[in-house]
Amino acid sequence: MTEQDWFVTNEGQCEAWEVISQPENLTQPYRLYRFLTDLEDILTTIADDRLRLQSICPLVRKLLTHSSWLQMMPLDPDPATGWEVSMLYDEPFFPLTVQLVAWAPGVKSPIHNHASWGVVALLSGQENNTFWQRSPTSKFPNQIQPVNDRLLAPGDILGLMPDAIHQVEALGEEPTISFNVYGETNYDQRFEFDLKHNTAHVF
Fold first, then answer.
1. Rounded Cα distance, 44 and 37, in Å
2. CA angle 141, 190, 10 (to 5 degrees)
3. Which regions of the chain are under pLDDT 70?
């Protein structure tokens, strides 16, 4: 399996990043609380989101390499919605959210941004991400257009800038499950996009 790190700009451009290999044997387990502490140190010392993501992606890969329990956690998409979220960490007044997300085969997400940096690491299944960019006109100020897409396989990691716009589609015959980490969301800047009406809704 070829593992790849990807980075998506605010304009929807998807760049390949070098994968930093992880040590196979650690003197002690790399547990979730250690990951969170390392993550907090990055957020404290690095203000630029692109540079933050460059430092966070290797930490996520290190956690996944040494935390087999993530692969064993049961998570099935809700039959009514086609998706499900399992919250692993969400502390009040602390700008970090860590979760597992499952999508049923064939289900597409709304077109949206996150208004925060984000990291998505695919654990199982196949997930296609379509990236969009804003192309507003005076008549349609919320108009967007597709830029490109990227198929994620297990082991791939996707870093997203705060205004990166994407749509997720689960492919194949099995649900996709991903490990997701997000920073502090600016809810005034988080949108779902309606192509039919060229509108954007804060959510």
1. 11
2. 75
3. 1, 22, 24
- CA angle centred on 39, ends 170 and 16, rounded to 5°: 50
C-alpha–C-alpha distance, residues 179 and 62, integer Å: 13
Which CA distances in Å does 66 have to 27, 62, 90?
11, 6, 22
Domain range annotation of the chain = 5-202
User: Which CATH architecture fits 5-202?
Assistant: Sandwich (2.60)
State the alpha helices, DSSP H only, in the chain: 32-45, 49-65, 69-72
pLDDT in tens, 80-136: 999 999 999 999 888 899 999 999 999 999 999 999 999 999 999 999 999 999 998
- Report residue 38 as tokens: 């390392």
